[in-house]
Amino acid sequence: MSNVINVLTADGASSVLEILTSPLLIIIYIAVVILLILLVVISVMINERRFNQSVKRILSQAKKTEKLDQLEREEKAGKNKNRFELLKKIDAEGVNKRSDFTQSCTLHEICDEFRLFAANRLNLYYDISDIRQFVAGLAVSRILILQGMSGTGKTSLAYAFGEFIDNSSVVIPVQPMWKERTDLLGYYNEFTRRFNETLLLEKMYEAGEREDMYITIMDELNIARVEYYFAEFLSLLEIPNPEARYLEVVSDHWETDPAKLKNGRIRLPENMWFVGTANNDDSTFSISDKVYDRAMVLNLDRKSEPFQTSSSKKMPLTAKKFDELARKAVEDYSVTQESLARLDQLDKYLIEKFQITFGNRIMRQILRYIPIFIACGGTEPEALDDILTKKVLRKLETQNTAYLRSESEELCNYIEGLFGENAMPRCTEYIRRIARNI
């Protein structure tokens, strides 16, 4: 039995040895080894690629960090530069403050002297009623719109007043593509690291240092949409406290910014008026109620005839003095109770018949305009006729054409019955004209 087991064991070992040394198994061994070697090589290559990518990421991050540091250094260096050249020049040189202002005068004298000055010095002739409307308009609102046919002297009137008060008006030619505040004030150029300052921004900054009246002429006001590019000005001028009227010029603050630019904002000067000239033709936009309601309006539809003049003089005025004269006029020539009652009746009639009303803002303007117009040398009926035409009846232009034509004569008769026959010629002529034209 033992011999049998030994024989079997010897045979088994011999068979195993034969298998282990067979050519097939050797080939398998070699293939496995090669496969293992390939796996090792691939693993090394993958790790090397990952390593290279990591190195690249680290280097790239380092470059970005260095670039950011450089940009930060450049920004810090840039903020040490002066980005407002014109405004800083005003800070450095100061402004010429005059002391020879006219101390004793009346609104009546201002109107008479201005008319003579325009004719005598500039060969510009205006009807005294237009002059009174212009001066009274300035006294009621910081925004005045001069409208009418081309060539009637709209721009010249505003320019002449600047010469009369001995502080030349600033003429801003409005551009058709204007849409926002930056078109008026300028913008910051990221490439040059300079602010492109406009003449208006410069004059606003200068006006903040002086007492003079400043007249800014917005030439061809409605060649672009006024309610777009002038929107922030309109809103700020509604704020009762002038000290709170600030416009954003830039969104940040640099240590080197001009002294009176507070956190990138400039105060809208209380002594600056905006006088816009408007043409009503196919090349212009209609002016919205938002603008009309906030502004005073003067219609210049015809040229005045030349007249003989006597000597004339300039009348340098401070904004404070001009506003004081306006306040005194409101105190001295308050609207009569009879006229107030008539205005109330007219308001109710217009609401019932045409669904239009005076509104609180327009009523405040009426209560200021009439006394000031009287102080300028006019009469209460003249003032009523003028302001009702421009501020209230103007709203009739939006009425249904057929309805307005059918009701226009009745409205004219109602006004004449309320205020007196032929007492309101501007109102009745205006109603009949728009009834014909719309």
TrEMBL record:
ATPase dynein-related AAA domain ranges (all copies): 144-294
Name of the molecule in the record: AAA family ATPase
Transmembrane segments: 24-46
Entry keyword Transmembrane: yes
Keywords annotated in UniProt: Membrane, Transmembrane, Transmembrane helix
Domain of life: Bacteria
Source organism of the structure: Candidatus Gallimonas intestinigallinarum
GO molecular function, one term: ATP binding
